Structure formats: structure tokens, C-alpha cells
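pinned: reference chain
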Amino acid sequence: MQTIDAGQRRLETRDAAPRGRGFRILLGLLTLPALLALGLLVADGSFSDSGQRVTEQELGDDWPLTVSKGILRCETKRVITFQHDGTTYSLNGTAEHGANSDVAPIRAQEPSGAKKDLAPLVERGVRLCD
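pinned: its C-alpha cells
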């Protein structure tokens, strides 16, 4: 608290923010959960400015992969990729020319044994390009 002499009146002002150790501890305790949550989102990949989290539940029977979720991205020149557990997979021919992994190991099969169509996922990725 400061006292300012303004002519005949004395004004007392308070500091805008307490500076005590208890306040800093409280601020840290309140901030820590938010930072941890942000870290988990970034680590999971669901917080991304260039991708969209997609799940098997969203596409239902059209889900073409053996993993249940990941991040769908439209890279430059309409390169569509899917990221899961730290690995980025190519979903379209354009993406196959890059340094991404082949999607074959996580691509689901139809009951007939044929590989499931990637089109629903690729189409959704192309919409991210626009």
C-alpha cells in the first residue's frame, strides 16, 4: 500500500496484484492443470491448426483403418495424410511420393478380403484443403 500526498488530501493506493509467496503458489496451482491439459492435447494431436481429429465412430462402417482415431491433414498440393501414434501415413497417391509411411499396415479389410476403400477419409481430407 502506498500513500500519496495530493495537496490537502491523502490518497492511499493498493498494489494491483499481491506479490506474496502464497499468491504465486496459488497462481501456479491454478495454471498447472490448464498447461497439462494443453500438453495432453498437443501430445495427442487433437490440438492442431493444420489437421482435424477423426474417429471410427464418426465414419461408422465407412472407416477404412484398423486404428480407431487419428489426425487427418491436407498438406501442401492436396497431399492427404493420417497421423496415428506418432506415425504419418499417406492416404492418396500424391502423399505416397513424400516421406510418409504406407497406410497398408493399418488399412482394414472387407469381409471379402479386399482392402477397404480410403475414399471417405480422403474426401474428408480434401475438404480440409479448401
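why pinned: The radius of gyration is 26 Å. Residues 51-129 form one domain.
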